[in-house]
């Protein structure tokens, strides 16, 4: 028995050492404040609502029915399904429709409260057979549309809000057929703030020479990549939550072989408590800025004294020490 315990402890220590080596513990002095997701202080500029904001439902809370569904014709989003109170319903890219399955559990379900299937009625003119349900791990029957589980967003405060659109590149308003809501002629920038005309031949992450900032990391669209000083790398934690993510969308996971010129050490994916997966460099969470409209923009540089472009090594570019 003692031999087994010793081996178990040794394996655990080895795993921890490997992660420490990957992410490093040499992050002190690089601007991290080490706040945990869910207990993060609001970011400067009024951003950064925590998970489980008003309107959220905890993992044990009773899911609310949508009642009589309706369809809202948004010029920006196209046809969007709402509940009887006019609140937008969303779908999650990590879920599956065949078979129906939800990947949003725990703290994720506080930010994205599930919609109960009971009492839901199809919107006028919409095929009622598209409505269904899926049993969640806690026994809740969640509403599905064409097999897609439905959610609300805790940061939507009034009917007609669609603040969850495009969050993390994985959450989208639902159309009446369960697909992602989209205008009839969808040729604009994506919800994460990437501009039209991005360079299609760029790797998932690469670098460019900025005339003012020097070498900075850019995403596959040529948009500048940023870090938040309130985040930490060891352990990996993000202080950008809720409304903050509308202004600072996360960089989605990128394969190591789909990069050029960036540090591979600590090039890991951060599984956020809201269900979004975020790419890191040297274990620092990465973001883009919705205020950047075209490749080469650096409008996020220095915002609030906490947001800065990222060097190829994952360092803050131009931040005061």
From TrEMBL:
<feature type="region of interest" description="Disordered">
    <location>
        <begin position="178"/>
        <end position="211"/>
    </location>
</feature>
<dbReference type="InterPro" id="IPR005297">
    <property type="entry name" value="Lipoprotein_repeat"/>
</dbReference>
<dbReference type="InterPro" id="IPR047910">
    <property type="entry name" value="SCO0930-like"/>
</dbReference>
<dbReference type="Pfam" id="PF03640">
    <property type="entry name" value="Lipoprotein_15"/>
</dbReference>
<protein>
    <submittedName>
        <fullName>SCO0930 family lipoprotein</fullName>
    </submittedName>
</protein>
<keyword id="KW-0449">Lipoprotein</keyword>
<keyword id="KW-0732">Signal</keyword>
<feature type="compositionally biased region" description="Low complexity">
    <location>
        <begin position="178"/>
        <end position="188"/>
    </location>
</feature>
<feature type="signal peptide">
    <location>
        <begin position="1"/>
        <end position="28"/>
    </location>
</feature>
């Amino acid at each position: 028995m003692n031999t087994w315990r010793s081996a178990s402890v040794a394996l655990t220590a080895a795993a921890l050492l490997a992660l420490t080596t990957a992410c490093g513990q040499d992050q002190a002095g690089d601007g991290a404040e080490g706040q945990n997701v869910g207990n993060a202080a609001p970011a400067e500029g009024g951003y950064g609502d925590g998970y489980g904001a008003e309107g959220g439902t905890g993992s044990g809370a009773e899911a609310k029915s949508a009642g009589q569904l309706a369809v809202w014709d948004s010029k920006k989003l196209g046809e969007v399904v709402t509940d009887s109170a006019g609140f937008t319903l969303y779908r999650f890219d990590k879920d599956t429709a065949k078979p129906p399955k939800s990947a949003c559990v725990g703290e994720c379900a506080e930010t994205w409260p599930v919609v109960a299937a009971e009492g839901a009625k199809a919107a006028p003119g919409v095929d009622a057979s598209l409505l269904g349900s899926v049993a969640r791990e806690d026994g809740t029957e969640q509403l599905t549309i064409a097999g897609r589980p439905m959610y609300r967003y805790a940061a939507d405060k009034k009917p007609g809000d669609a603040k969850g659109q495009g969050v993390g590149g994985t959450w989208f308003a639902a159309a009446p057929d369960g697909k992602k809501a989209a205008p009839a002629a969808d040729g604009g920038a994506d919800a994460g703030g990437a501009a039209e005309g991005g360079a299609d031949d760029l790797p998932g992450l690469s670098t460019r020479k900025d005339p003012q900032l020097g070498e900075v990391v850019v995403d596959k669209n040529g948009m500048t990549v940023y870090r938040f000083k309130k985040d930490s790398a060891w352990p990996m934690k993000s202080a950008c939550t809720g409304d903050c993510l509308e202004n600072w969308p996360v960089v989605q996971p990128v394969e190591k072989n789909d990069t050029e010129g960036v540090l591979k050490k600590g090039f890991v994916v951060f599984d956020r408590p809201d269900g979004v997966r975020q790419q890191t460099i040297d274990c620092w969470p990465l973001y883009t800025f919705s205020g950047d409209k075209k490749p080469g923009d650096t409008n996020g540089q220095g915002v609030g004294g906490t947001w800065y472009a990222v060097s190829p090594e994952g360092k803050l570019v131009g931040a005061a020490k």
